[in-house]
Specification:
Blueprint: H1 3-10, E1 17-18, E2 21-22, H2 26-36, H3 40-43, H4 45-68, H5 71-77, H6 80-115, H7 124-146, H8 171-202, H9 204-217, H10 222-243, E3 248-249, E4 252-253, H11 257-270, H12 278-304, H13 314-352, H14 361-397, H15 405-435
Antiparallel strand pairs: 1-2, 3-4
Helix pairs in contact: 1-2, 1-8, 2-4, 4-6, 6-7, 7-8, 10-11, 10-15, 11-12, 12-13, 13-14, 14-15
Length: 436
């Protein structure tokens, strides 16, 4: 029933954060917990609320993971941004992560009320209290350590007498306290959480009852899974498309494209039971690999030649050529991936967005007309996507000769993203209509 996924997901949360550096990416933990709640959420409304809450928490932690790559840059230029990031994510954790865990535990209490299973109440109150304490410690202590960035001698207008108190003098101590305290509390919390969910997993009577309920009430509804998986795949495509925006800060792309490739890869895996996704899987996998190489090459160039004028530096010029070659190869694979997405959407339109057998002829005719519109929009979406890939190659080639071209590239990418967002939402509505 997904309990093992819940336990695996929780293990990604117990380690401390250093500023916004996440030693074990929490968003992976969110994904595993969402996976673990897949079956249980169909049986229990409160666990469905918990699943939706963890989806929101996942987006917060994805943003933290992406911004984590900017820490070396801001740490060397303007460390005030690190304090801002830490404080913002503390607030976001209070809004999204804390409620997600509360809804998770409340959902199991509700399940206990439904099944009269005593194992669901064992140590539940202790775990609930420990969860609140742990999450607060994990989120707040990095902010306390990062406050040292604003308590420095250079930010003070006082004439130094040698007796002033500055947090910057104790940053190493604050970071050490954060690591030590959060790790201790995290381990204690994890032990309680793992024991709690293991005891649920070992209750054979409860698990057998839930499995039987799932088989008789949920598995028979095939339309539910079609709608859910198509919607999930579309969300992965949109998140992946957003992460493939090239946002250069001092020649470093702080939104690495390979993260987008990973989400497209997830979309292919999500729909493998319903569509032929082998082509998308292969193209997105190769794109992700090449994007890692391209991002690494660009980062190496930016670190080795900061603020360089390549026409006066032959070594920088040669490395810049390598950057352009890897960037061009990346976008060639991206075009292949976009073509695979086009074919996947075409298959979804044909198989899952048409009229059902029971539809009236007049309604069926309208749905067929809608499919034709979708097919045309799919072609337009592919064309704009390919244009964005060509623009991405030109943007890098013209980085020093025509730097303002990046604004044209941004505009094209925004147009493509808005168009594909509306397009996928329209198809999803058609699929929902057919299988509701």
């Amino acid at each position: 029933m997904g309990i093992s996924y819940l336990i695996a997901g929780l293990t990604f949360f117990f380690l401390p954060n250093i500023s916004i550096i996440d030693l074990l990416p929490d968003f992976i933990g969110c994904i595993l917990i969402i996976k673990g709640l897949g079956k249980l959420s169909d049986l229990t409304p409160l666990l469905m609320n918990a699943k939706l809450a963890f989806i929101k928490a996942m987006y917060v932690n994805i943003a933290k993971f992406v911004l984590m790559f900017s820490v070396p840059y801001f740490g060397n230029t303007n460390d005030m941004f690190l304090l801002i990031f830490s404080f913002v994510f503390l607030v976001l954790d209070l809004i999204y992560v804390f409620p997600a865990f509360k809804k998770l535990l409340d959902g199991f209490v509700y399940l206990g009320n439904r099944t009269n299973s005593s194992v669901l109440y064992k140590n539940q109150s202790e775990l609930s209290t420990l969860t609140t304490i742990f999450l607060f410690v994990k989120s707040s202590l990095p902010v306390l350590a990062d406050l040292s960035y604003i308590s420095k001698p250079e930010y003070s207008n006082n004439i130094s007498s040698g007796n002033e108190f500055y947090l910057s003098n104790y940053r190493l101590l604050l970071v050490s306290v954060n690591i030590l305290v959060t790790s201790i509390v995290g381990v204690v919390w994890l032990v309680y959480a793992v024991n709690y969910f293991k005891s649920i997993k070992k209750d054979k009577a409860l698990i057998e009852y839930l499995e039987n309920e799932y088989k008789t009430k949920v598995l028979t509804n095939t339309g539910l899974f079609i709608r859910r998986n198509i919607k999930s795949a579309f969300i992965f495509i949109l998140v992946g498309g957003f992460l493939m925006f090239d946002l250069l800060v001092d020649s470093v792309n702080i939104l690495p494209d390979f993260l987008g490739g990973l989400f497209i890869l997830l979309a292919a895996l999500t729909l493998k039971k319903y569509c032929k996704t082998r082509t998308l899987f292969v193209t997105s996998l190769f794109f992700t690999i090449v994007a890692i190489v391209s991002w690494g090459t660009l980062s190496y160039f930016a670190a080795k030649f900061p603020a360089v004028y390549i026409w006066n530096n032959f070594e920088a010029y040669e490395l810049f050529i390598v950057v352009n070659i890897t960037n061009a190869i990346k976008y060639i694979f991206c075009i292949g991936m976009f073509i695979a997405i086009y074919r996947l959407i075409k298959s979804i339109i044909s198989n899952y967005a048409g009229a059902s057998v029971e539809e009236l002829k007049t309604v069926s005719k309208l749905v067929d007309e809608q499919q034709k519109v979708f097919s045309k929009q799919n072609i337009i979406c592919l064309a704009i996507g390919i244009l964005c890939c060509v623009s991405g190659i030109l943007r890098m080639v013209l980085l020093y000769d025509f730097p303002t071209f990046m604004f044209i590239d941004y505009a094209l990418n925004i147009i493509w993203y808005i168009y594909i967002s509306k397009f996928l939402f329209s198809i999803n509505d058609a699929v929902e209509y057919k299988y509701l």
